[in-house]
Structures are given as structure tokens and as C-alpha cells.
TrEMBL record:
Keywords: Cell membrane, Membrane, Transmembrane, Transmembrane helix. The chain crosses the membrane at residues 265-291, 314-340, 360-382, 411-430, 442-471, 492-517, 727-752, 777-799, 819-840. Pfam families: FtsX (PF02687), MacB_PCD (PF12704). It comes from Streptomyces johnsoniae. It is a multi-pass membrane protein. This is FtsX-like permease family protein. It is found in: Cell membrane. Residues 270-390, 730-846 form the ABC3 transporter permease C-terminal domain. Belongs to the ABC-4 integral membrane protein family.
Amino acid sequence: MTVLKTSMRSFFSHKGRMALSGIAIVLSVAFVCGTLVFTDTLNSTFDKFFAATASDVTVGPEEEENGQETGREGTLPEGVVDRVRAVDGVESAEGVVINTSITVVDGDGESVGGATGAPTIGADWGPDTQRSMELTEGREPGGPGEALLDADTARRQGLAIGDELEIVAVSGRHAVTVTGLVEFSSTNPGAPYLLLEPAAARTALLGAADVISSVHVTAAGGVADEELKERIGAALGGGFDIDTRAENEEAMADDVGGFLDVMRYAMLGFAGIAVLVGVFLIVNTFSMLVAQRTREIGLLRAIGSSRRQVNRSVLAEALLLGVLGSIVGIGAGVGLAVGLMKVMNSAGINMDTSELTVTWSTPVAGLLVGVVATVLAAWLPARRAGRVSPMAALRDAGTPGDAAAGRVRGALGLVLTGAGVACLVAAAGAEEAGEGSLFLSGGLLLTLFGAIVLAPLLASGVVRVLGAVVLRMFGPVGRMAGRNARRNPRRTGATAGALMIGLALVGSLSVVGSSVVASASDQLDRSVGADFIIDTSGQLITPEAAEAVRSTPGLAHVTDYTVVSVELTTPDGRTTAHDVTAADPTYARDLRAPTVAGELPAAYEPDHLSVGETFAEEHGLSVGDELTARFVGGDEGVRLTLGAITSDRTLIDSQAMYLSTDTARAHLPAEKMPLNMVMFAKAEEGQKDAVYAELRERMAPFPQYEVSDQADYKQALEDEIGMLLNIVYALLALAIIVAVLGVVNTLALSVVERTREIGLMRAIGLSRRQLRRMVRLESVVIALFGALLGLGLGLGWGATAQRVLEQEGFTVLEIPWPTILAVFAGSAVVGLAAALFPAFRAGRMNVLRAIATD
């Protein structure tokens, strides 16, 4: 009990020394808890929205498995509503019209799009819709040219009652005037809703006056949803999809669940990196505290405290630090979640802070992360404290180094690093991407831990070199700063190691991102022969838009490009479903896809196709073989001849199968022929600039499509990858902030440890300004040491990752030297910033009191 009381007194008497370690725990736990609260709230928001919009039973058209993407919504005859109403147990049944494939254009020709890619939804303003929405302003639509708009979209897009909008659908274009605004009874997650009078909705959204999208059924009292589903199924017979409320809610939740899971696990992954970096800080803090209290611990041992008691005293301090830091971190995590919700609201995804969801698992997870990480990090320093001899009470603070431990560390570090390098070499030489990825993962972990173990052993030599380059110009002060950084290699190595982790990830991702962009640009230059690309961002090109492209003067050719669903039976007897690219024969010139057998133009001959080399190897195919095809929704038993086998080592259309659009049209009814997903065009010789301007003008009424030349396409690709990398860098900034706290903590404790030494230097003439400069330079050289290790690892990881990705067509290694050099120089700035407080504290020391310190 005495030892425990002593540890508690020590903790609270040195709470300033614990503060920065506590901040690291707070940040790590806050990121974990904030992620959990945010994603739980987002899940809850969607669940409430789905519950508000789902009916007891829904009757819809039967969906064909692997059906063709025609852009037309599935429909039911309007008469089905009366048949459903007649079923025993139905309280009410309403025909519903909905279309999620429309584009709404405002008066300025801009798309009224959803937040973060959410679809624009057109629906009817009928009894079913009115149960989940309320007209809050204006009046109901009274005819074909009027519509309601949800209030959230109106606020976000600056629209108001009286504004003119245009609906762009497969069935054509329809002008409407906004007559009112509606709000949801629950939170709308961010999809724009345009609501038309029911008869007008059927014509404008579904293309016919006598069809509906589905029937929403309310069960009579005492009738279970499952029972009513069975009754309706028996009454209607086959040809319908009938789902209960629970099934609908589950299906809708699954649609968004994948996105939410990716977001949750990605953010938790970055939180894990921050926790790992925080562990370094805590290990360093407790190691320094144990070293500074060596004499005190020796006295405790001399008066009878056992090793176990001393060990427990240090762990008790760590436990208290972990608990306090975790509790504050949980609260900060809730605040972080609220902040993320505000950011999402500004982006158009509506999240109400009153619906904040904090489940019991969130604080438990926060406490586990904080406490376990802290106690595990303090375990090694606690063991070191337990080994302090009673004779240490007779020595000055500090313990002699353990040469045997250093040799073991060196041997272990070399083994880990050597094994990691061997894995990276194996990954770079692997012939398959899957095998290479496995070796790459092992190499990343082994080289990281190897560098962590070796960092203290490398510290003296590397810091000496850095000091000679960086510190020489600062004279005696610079030399003292270098010696201080080399004085305790274990401390310097651990401090730099925390910074190393974040910068290694930054360096490797920079190399991978730049290589992806360079590879794609190189392949576009070598493979794409088209001058213009009409991209859809996942939508389909309406017939009206496609005609606008084809009618542009000055075009040498226009290529249709779509995907048809086909079941292929190979000569080995196996049948598999595939999306096969259907394109015009000119696509062989628009994309010069490399082949390993045959010539690509042969694939566009009648009843011919091409396959990728992996598919051909799996099924033992060669050029001239015949495959049997079933076009989903069309002809069966079609004999297709293999005209070419394309290489899979390409970024564009990797492993694609090709056939001509004429072949697809010959075996599919017109209503089942998919719409274009992309279009390509080539200008007449010497008319590229003029045609480009004309093409963009003709496509202006269709803002959902992007018209690009090759330069635009490359820039868009670079911007997209750059934005993704910026998000990753922002998340990695948390780990770097924790690492900076480690530098601050190390320097602050180091200043305390060297109090008497600083007093003596001041006494013999070192000025305050020189003293502060010495501390800052020490911080800079430690930060540069961490940057050198981290960026060195990152370059190795990134180059190896590019070699693995080479199997997927990323053939160009691009090292972004400006970024790497900027990060290295930025590390010096980080070191300067981290030293501000410790340097200020050192400069304020009273010389006489510092000299008198034990």
C-alpha cells in the first residue's frame, strides 16, 4: 500500500510531465470513439429514414437476375393496385411512382445533384409519399408542368418556389415549375426529391400513363406482414417481387452498409496508427521518468520494497494515466463526432445532432484502447524500474546502459529488417499480384518493426552525420545540440520512431499515387486513339444525349460503348455470367488494347467476341474456339467465335470481353438493349479544337455528362487521386500530431533531467538565447532523423508496391521528389515548433536554483 501511495503522489506531483502523454491518449481515444459515434449515428439516420419510407408490404416487378442496364425503371400495370386492394387483410394499397435515374437541371443549366453522389429521386405526390413528407411552403402540384422540391435541396442549391427546372430522363425532357417545398418527417440523408402530380409522374418518370413502379400496402390490424405477403403472392401469382417491411429495410440498409463499413474501418485504421505512435510517446515518457527517479526507486528498494511492488507502482501510474486520458478522450470523441456531422451537413448529407447515437460499446472500446495501450506501453519501463538495485540510492540519477540488451536489440533488429527486405524483394519479383500483395504486407510490417528496433542503434551515427550537415553553421551551440541528441540513443530513437511511422506512410502513398497517375497517363498516351470521351460518372447516356453527340459536325466517327449481360458456356462445359463490353468496331481504334492472340478487330465481326487472357487460360481457350451464349432477356444458344485474346496487363478495360453492338442488337429485343455507358469520338483531321468547342456546347443541356479530351481526362484523374491522397494525409496528420507531442515531451523531460547541467552552462556564460537555440536545434535534428528513417522506408515501400501493381498495368514508377523534399524540410519546421515550449522553459530557469538541483 505504501508503494501505491508513493506512486500516486509521484503521478500528481509530476502531472505536467504526464500531460503530453495524456494528450496522446486523448487524441487516440477521441478518434476511435468519434468514429464509432459518427458511423453509429449515420447508420441510425439511414435506419430511421428507411423505416419512415417503407410500407408493411411492397409489390414490385420481378427483377431478372443480371438484367440489362436499359436505364428504364421496372413497371407494373396500374390495374395491379385494385387486385392487391381486394386481398383479405389489406387496409390500403397505393400505386407509387419512383425513378432514381433522372437528372434535374436548374435554370442555369446546372445539375441539381445529391450530396456526395446521392441519386436524384423523382416520385409522385400521392397518399403514400404524403405519409412521410409534409408540405411546408407553397401549394401542391396541379398538373404536368408543376412539381414540389424537398426543402433541404432548395436551401443547398439556392432554389425557391417559382423556379423553373427540367427533368432529364430516358423518356425525354420535361419542364416543371416549383410550386412548393416539402420536408421529411425523419431526416433526409441528402438525396434530392422532386415530386410530381401522380398522373404527370407516370408519364414524365416512367414514360407511360398506365404504369406504376410498385404498390405500397398497409396491413389491417392483427395481420402480420409475412402472412399478408403470402396472401398477396397467392392472389397475384408469379412475376412479382413481394417484400415485407423488414426485408425492405434490410435491403436498403445493405445498399449503404458497404459504404459505411469502409468509412468506419478506414477511420479506425488511422486511429490504430495514432495509437501505435502514442505507444512510443508513453514508452519514452515512462522510460525517462524511471531514469530520473532511479535514486528514489533505489531508496524504496533499500527500505524493503520488492521488485514486484516497484513494478506495480509504475503500472499503477500508467493505469491512472490511461483511465483519465480515456475518459477525456471519450468526451472529446463525442465532440469530434458532432464536428464531423456539421461537416457532413455542409456537404449536403443531413445529420441532426439531436439524433446523436452513443451505444454502450463506444465508451467500453475507448477505455479498452486507452488503458490497454497505456499499460502495455508502460510495461517495459516498469520492468526496468523493478530491476533497479538498492545501490542506485547511492548513485546520481540515471542507470548505466545495458550492453547485453543493446546486442540483443541489434541482432533482433537486423533479423527483422533482413526478413522484411527479403519479403519486399519477393513481392517485387512476384508474377501474380495476389502473391506480391501477401509478401508486400509481410515486408511492410517486418521492415517497420525492424526500423523501430534499430532506431536507437542508428541514432548516434545518423545524428552525427545530420549534425555535421545541419548544425555546423551554428558553431558550439550546434555541436552541443548534436551531442545532446546522441547522449541517449534509446530516447532519440524512440522519439524519432514515432515520427517515422507517419512519414513512412506519407512517403509510400505519395510514390504509389504519383505512379498510378503516371502509369495511367502513359497508357492513355499509348492506347487511347479517341480525341473525346463522353463520361457519365456511373449514369447512362440517354438517347437524346447520344444523338446530340452523333450530330456534332466535324466528327470522323462516334463509338457507342455499353455493357451487356451474357451467360457464356465454354467448351469445357462450365457456364458463367459476365458483363461483356458491346462497342462499335471503331472502338478498336479508340482503344488500342494489346492482344496475346489474334487481332482485336476480329472480335467485332458478327457473332464474334474477345476474352481476357486469364479467362482464356482458366478455360483452355484459343482463337477460333466457339462459346455458347445466352443474352439475358434475349436469345439463347447463340454460338460466338473467339476472335482475339486480350492482355490483362492494362489499366483500361483490364480483363474485358468485347463484341460488337450489332451482335448485341441482333440477339436482344430493342427494349432490352442497354444504353451507352460511355461514348468516344474522333475529330476530322485538323478540326479537333473547333469540334471540341461545338461538342461541349451541344452537351451543355446535359450537365450530368462530362465531355473531355485526353488532357482533361488526365487532369481529372490526377485531381481525383490527389483529393483521395489529401484525405489520407489529413487522417495521417493525427498520427503526426501525436508524434510531435512525443518530441515536445522528450525535450521537456530532457530539460528537467538536465536542470543542473543547464544551470552550469548558464553560469559559465551561455546566454538564454543560445540555450533556447540549442534546445531547438536538438529538436530539429531528432525530427530530421525521424524523417530520414520514415521517408527512406516510405520510398522502399512505395517502389515495391508499384512493382506489385505492375501486374495490374501500373508500369511507371514515379517518385514525387518535390513532395518528398518538402516533407523532409517540413520535418525541420515540425522540430522547431515542437521545441518552442521546452526551449522557453529552459531559458527561464533560475541559474542558482538549477545548479543546486540534485
